[in-house]
Design a protein that fits this description.
Layout (H helix, E strand, L loop, with lengths): L13 H11 L20 H7 L7 E5 L2 E4 L17 E2 L14 E5 L7 E4 H7 L2 E9 L22 E10 H8 L7 E6 L16 E3 H4 L5 E6 L2 E2 L9 E3 L12 E7 L14 E3 L14 E3 L6 E6 L4 E3 L5 E8 L5 E7 L7 E2 L1 E2 L9 E7 L5 E11 L23 E7 L1
Parallel strand pairs: 4-13, 17-24
Antiparallel strand pairs: 1-2, 2-3, 4-5, 6-7, 7-10, 8-9, 8-13, 10-11, 10-12, 14-15, 16-18, 18-22, 19-20, 19-23, 21-22, 23-24
The chain binds the ligand Nc1nc2c(c(=O)[nH]1)N[C@H]1C(S)=C(S)[C@@H](COP(=O)(O)O)O[C@H]1N2 and molybdenum atom.
Molybdenum atom binds next to loops.
Amino acid sequence: MPPKNYKRRKFIKESTLAVFSGILGMDVVFGSNMPEGYIPVLLQEQESLKTFGKNSALIVLNDKPWNVESPAHLLDDRITPADKMFIRNNGLLPPKTDPSNWKLTIKGESVLNEKTYILQELKSKFVSHTYQLVLECGGNGRGEFYPPTEGNQWGVGAVHCAAWTGFRLKDLLNDLGIKADAVYVGYHGTDGHLSGDANREAISRGIPIAKAMQDETLIAYAMNGKDIPMVHGYPLRLVVSGYPASVSGKWIHTISIRNKVHDGSKMEAPSYMVPKVPMEPGANISSENFQIIESMPVKSLITYPKSGAEFGLTRKLEIRGHAWAGEKKVKSVSYSIDFGSTWQSCHLESPVNRFAWQHFNAQIQFHQKGYYEVWAKATDDSGISQPMVVPGWNPKGYLNNACHRIAVKVV
Ligand SMILES: Nc1nc2c(c(=O)[nH]1)N[C@H]1C(S)=C(S)[C@@H](COP(=O)(O)O)O[C@H]1N2
Ligand SMILES: [Mo]
């Protein structure tokens, strides 16, 4: 008789093993010996940063699913390098991928003829375009909301601006022909649902057809001049800037052209939705009072110096960073060293293309030794500025675009 607490040791499923092989880029030779629930050492927390090719200063918020954020000072580059990009996954990483027979199907109620393209065919048939595009998680800044909301407690670093290369989604849709009743486009990726249920999707979100038709809405196959890294959607990803990054589907195999608002996983309230009118923090509201987040709000990040850095009184301090405003342009950025009482303007560059972040800098002369905070505030071209306090509380903690602040010690 087995002891009372005896549990049958379940051995790992082949599908899970394929996921591990995908991440590691090689087969796990004695993988069939691994018990269920076992995480290979190389995929445990800090070790995994190396496996994913990430800078060791990144912060692991969760490893089931993988969510990793970048501290502000690591985002100093004009174009974010792969090793400094945050990772946000809603499900299990996809299994090992063979790009040579990767297919993309376009279907849905509003396509005239459903079609499946082979990745290679797409590359020869459609013109490639490259844009620098900001992708910011809708929950970036969530950690500041009070009362706290569930989900990854992101600080400020769930944002990046890489150079993405791919085909315009609109070129594919024009090639295919879509019906006049098309209103929405949804994506489907190969990542698995956290439950392990193969019939459920981790996430399948979408965008209005007008957004799909913008020049910068890409089906990307390259990032910063190389193949897209595995964790960021290799070999094919939708890149839709200006909206919450959750609409930029990774590992896409299918795009659905819908005659109604896409109803995939995480399209239902309150996912990626905010209340239509401001609400009392902590209160409950019903689903019909939510609306889907579209354009992200104006925001900025001081990426140099690193918060807490020390400087001599005699020299001017150069601060620099980036600002972006969803579908809008940033008109100005200013800084304050007196807790928001007075503001001075920063030098601000134009974006290299629509939806790229804009770089700013300023030279600050301090006149007394001591502790300071430098706050940055961006204003978009419709005159809306970042708030100095955390903006409207919402049940999922989205859209915190409060001014970024860093500490500076003048010695
Ligand atoms: N297939 C798939 N696409 C996805 C996700 C996902 O979990 N699965 N996460 C989304 C969310 S919520 C964000 S913020 C971005 C994160 O992109 P990154 O991991 O490349 O930084 O991918 C989006 N696309
Ligand atoms: Mo996200």
